[in-house]
Design goal:
By secondary structure, the protein is an alpha+beta fold. The chain is about 20% helix and about 35% strand. Strand 6 and strand 7 form a beta hairpin.
Length: about 220
């Protein structure tokens, strides 16, 4: 299992904390049932942190230039028509993907093209499934211009627990479908805004895989 570079500091901090706690408890509690219970919980905690930052290799075998792949692992929690007012400034289809703490949190580019817009927004930390989290929470917005003339917009959204968004996008750079866009630490949501005439390939509550699942087509 490959660990993403964004997890190195968090895993190190968790490991040091666990070692300190267990050394202290051995000094003061000796070998008791509580000692072994704390040790077991500590190992589980580090294991959860490690699995959160896993970065699995994805097949990435979708060579169809007209398909849009999922930018994140998780569950589809919204498919609706909205007016996107930040950059696209038009009605479009919004697809929202909720990532639980057990999902892979690496985000990927859903299409190939050029980064037309990128902006970080500080904000609140409403629960990720809150309807207003897309507009009020801390978030990063990235728009990608496809060769066919269409723009799609992607929004990484922080939640109540997730308070660290990493985005690698840089304006005017060319990007490849399935390549790393960024990382959201400890559970949150990704919204993607696509043209109204796109064909939707997924449904509500469906589980998707970033870099693999085709969610729509131009």
């Amino acid at each position: 299992m490959t660990i993403h570079k964004e997890g190195c500091k968090s895993i190190m901090a968790a490991s040091v904390l666990v070692v300190v706690i267990n050394v202290l408890q051995l000094i003061f509690l000796k070998h008791t049932l509580i000692t072994y219970l704390i040790l077991a919980v500590s190992v589980l905690f580090v294991g959860l942190v490690v699995q959160f930052f896993r970065s699995p290799k994805r097949k990435g075998n979708d060579n169809n230039h007209q398909t849009i792949i999922s930018p994140a692992d998780g569950k589809i929690v919204a498919i609706e028509t909205v007016y996107e007012k930040e950059f696209l400034k038009q009605e479009c289809k919004q697809i929202s993907i909720f990532m639980s703490p057990l999902n892979v949190h690496l985000n990927r580019y859903p299409i190939s093209g050029k980064v037309a817009y990128m902006k970080y927004h500080p904000g609140a930390y409403l629960v990720a499934w809150h309807p207003k989290s897309s507009e009020k929470n801390e978030r990063t917005t990235v728009a990608i211009a496809h060769d066919n003339g269409h723009n799609i917009l992607l929004r990484q959204i922080a939640g109540t627990v997730a308070r660290r968004i990493v985005c690698y996008a840089q304006k005017n750079t060319s990007v490849e479908k399935g390549a790393e866009l960024g990382f959201i630490k400890f559970g949150s949501r990704v919204d993607i805004f696509i043209p109204l005439d796109c064909r939707i390939n997924i449904q509500l509550q469906q589980k998707v895989k970033g870099g693999e699942t085709v969610i729509a087509s131009f």
